[in-house]
Amino acid sequence: MKYSTKVSDAVHIMAFIALNPAGSLTSEKIAESIRTNPGCVRQLMSLLRKYGLLISIKGHPKPSLTKLPSDITLLDIYKAVEGEKSLLHLDTHTNPECGVGIHIQLALQDYFDQVQKCAEEEMQKITLQDILNRYQEKLFHLGELFERKVSEDL
Amino acid sequence: MKYSTKVSDAVHIMAFIALNPAGSLTSEKIAESIRTNPGCVRQLMSLLRKYGLLISIKGHPKPSLTKLPSDITLLDIYKAVEGEKSLLHLDTHTNPECGVGIHIQLALQDYFDQVQKCAEEEMQKITLQDILNRYQEKLFHLGELFERKVSEDL
DNA sequence: CATGTTGTTATAATTAAATTTACATCAAAG
DNA sequence: CTTTGATGTAAATTTAATTATAACAACATG
Predict the structure, then answer these.
(1) Class of domain B6-153
(2) pLDDT tens string A73-96
(3) What does the alpha-carbon distance between residue A144 and residue B95 come to, in Å, rounded to a whole number?
């Protein structure tokens, strides 16, 4: 299948809203940045809204976050758009007549759950604010490089 | 797309081989248990062989593990069949003209890497032997249930 | 009331994976 | 040495999850 970029795009949307607290933000503007179409953006926003992470009103192009970026975790966004889908997938197609097969899968499920739990705990440590901060750093760093380049050129 | 069950199936294959150290094990026998066809099994075995986790010889239906199950981790198997593919995927399609977009994605990459690292460390703690043990427990537990059922029926 | 945007749903297109097929190559048995 | 059966590999096909697209009713604003 295609790789899911829902989490990535959802973070993008959330960050975009956080960075535009005042101005009007249409789904089309956001879609331009993600390079997709407004329909996709609205679908993701619908999921984020249903999960209580943002508020938006029909016909009113001013979405807003329900919480501070420091109170929104990557896990929140993951759960909002991916639900209970996990990162590793069992093969549930194994031959049920084969006792070995089914029990190996059951055993493996326990360990996949363990990895999932670990990943989710890590995602819970990461907030939207962290991502915004890192974003600012990247921008600042780029600015520095540009400054140096200019002074070298003189 | 379809969900990848390569890790799951690869563990299945490795466990199957570990449980059949003596007998001849054809790709067809393994395929029956996973309920797929021999070609798929051979493709996965090829990846496992290239990564050095098992040995098998053309025309000789007796695959064997290169290490003790207690020395083979879930991470080994993951790397063998999934390579450097990670669990979470960035949207690399964002508009490069949109400075905000690209830098949010760059910032997010750092955090996706962090989650990946965490998951991989957890996978490294889990050995094939652990999975085999859990498998035995499940089998044993099922046996107990059966015993009880029989005695109740008397 | 006119315009523009959202929320929702249904449908199509895309893409990564699994499956299937085919065949050359090798091992073992007769 | 020949036959049989299995493997290793690669190409072509099918399947399935996701994204993209389109359409339209409902709502806000001026």
Answers:
(1) mainly alpha
(2) 999 999 999 999 999 999 988 765
(3) 23
